[in-house]
Design brief:
- The complex is a heterodimer of chains A (about 160) and B (about 170).
- Chain A is of the alpha+beta class.
- Chain A has one domain.
- In chain A, about 45% of the residues lie in helices and about 25% in strands.
- In chain A, a hairpin with a 4-residue loop joins strand 4 and strand 5.
- In chain B, strand 1 and strand 2 form a beta hairpin.
- Chain B contains four helices and seven strands.
- In chain B, the strands form two sheets. In chain B, strands 3, 4, 5, 6 and 7 form a five-stranded antiparallel sheet that branches.
- In chain B, about 25% of the residues are buried.
- Chain B has one domain.
- In chain B, helix 3 crosses helix 4.
- Classes of the chains: A alpha+beta (about 160), B alpha+beta (about 170).
- Chains A and B meet through helix 1, strand 4 and strand 5 of A and helix 1, helix 2 and helix 4 of B.
């Protein structure tokens, strides 16, 4: 008879321990799910940015405003877009906002920015504004060709594409 | 005693369920990533290098792709007045361009490889081969993810014979 209250107490303790354990497990699981969700959103954001870099590069490589198709940029077209005042606002209507592209032909020892005065003795074209400290960025270099209209030659070039958020 | 046992079993079942869900979610996260940059990069690199002008006006040496064909078909042909043979010029030009991009981009390992439908030999009687880069990338497994370009085929008819070269580029991150 004297054991009954002790047994009751131990059963209550058992229940309390069970409840504590289950609550702790649920809280732990919720924390894990929250962390996992945040990680997935960050990973998706990173992937979206990477995809946008590739899409932007592909679109520009095949856009007849800059290129003759199939990753061959035309130096005259590049110069006319870069130097004739077609600004980032206009290009953003086609390619969206928050990006920067530069193209460097590797046929000169030094980089020379192309404008009407320098053309065709130049090898560097840039579009939109390079951001020093964006929240986050993705950047890639793509091998391309630049067709030199004046000399009828094909030069190897690097297209640098950056996307910001 | 029985109650304690059933509580223990319940705890173990709950733990196993949570662990199962965690493992499932983590494995799901691992399969989300995919790389669209590398295939575009490797195809563009091969194509861009091959259609670049070498600076020579000789039709056998004008483009890098002409040089590659010349290196296999007439390896001792001298391009221009520089006294450089097709084979040597092809070798040095491709090596230089590949190194430029390997350093500029992702610190890549690369292998430029050519397969032919014909066999040519140099003056010493050795078979001509223009594999440039790291030969171990040809092996099926090299330890790192690698990307292989679409084959670029050059075909020329000389006389009544057709000569075909198939060029490919394999890259892998260091």
């Amino acid at each position: 008879m004297a054991c009954e209250p002790r047994k009751g107490q131990s059963e209550i303790m058992e229940y309390i321990l069970m409840i504590v354990f289950i609550v702790a497990a649920i809280i732990g699981f919720m924390l894990f799910l929250t962390w996992w969700n945040i990680t997935q959103i960050q990973a998706q954001g990173f992937k979206d940015r990477e995809d946008r870099v590739v899409a932007l590069a592909q679109n520009m490589m095949n856009d007849y405003m800059f290129a003759n198709g199939d990753s061959v940029f035309d130096d005259a077209k590049l110069t006319s877009v870069a130097a004739a005042g077609i600004g980032c606002d206009e290009l953003s209507l086609i390619y969206g906002v928050d990006w920067y592209v530069n193209i460097t032909a590797l046929d000169m020892p030094m980089e020379r920015k192309c404008d009407w005065n320098g053309y065709p003795n130049c090898n560097y074209w840039s579009f939109c504004t390079y951001q020093e400290h964006p929240e986050s960025r993705s950047a890639y270099n793509f091998p391309v060709n630049v067709y030199r209209k004046a000399t009828n030659r094909m030069s190897l070039a690097v297209m640098h594409v950056e996307v910001y958020t | 005693m029985r109650r304690a046992q059933s509580s223990m079993i319940l705890i173990i079942v709950v733990i196993m369920m949570f662990v199962g869900i965690v493992v499932f979610l983590l494995s799901l996260a691992g399969t989300v990533g995919r790389d669209e940059f590398t295939p575009l990069y490797v195809d563009n690199l091969l194509l861009s290098v091959m259609r670049t002008d070498t600076g020579y006006t000789d039709s056998r040496c004008k483009l890098v792709s002409d040089l590659v064909f010349c290196a296999y078909y007439t390896p001792e042909w001298v391009c221009g007045e520089g006294a450089v043979t097709c084979y040597d010029l092809a070798n040095s030009t491709i090596t230089s361009y590949m190194k430029t991009f390997a350093n500029k981009t992702l610190n890549l390992r690369y292998l430029f490889t050519v397969t032919t439908t014909f066999v040519t030999r140099n003056n010493e009687g050795e078979q001509i081969s223009l594999d440039i880069g790291e030969p171990d990338l040809k092996k099926p497994r090299t330890g790192s993810m690698k990307a292989v370009s679409y084959p670029l085929v050059i075909s020329k008819v000389i006389g009544s014979n057709q000569y075909t070269l198939k060029m490919q580029l394999i890259v892998a991150k260091r």
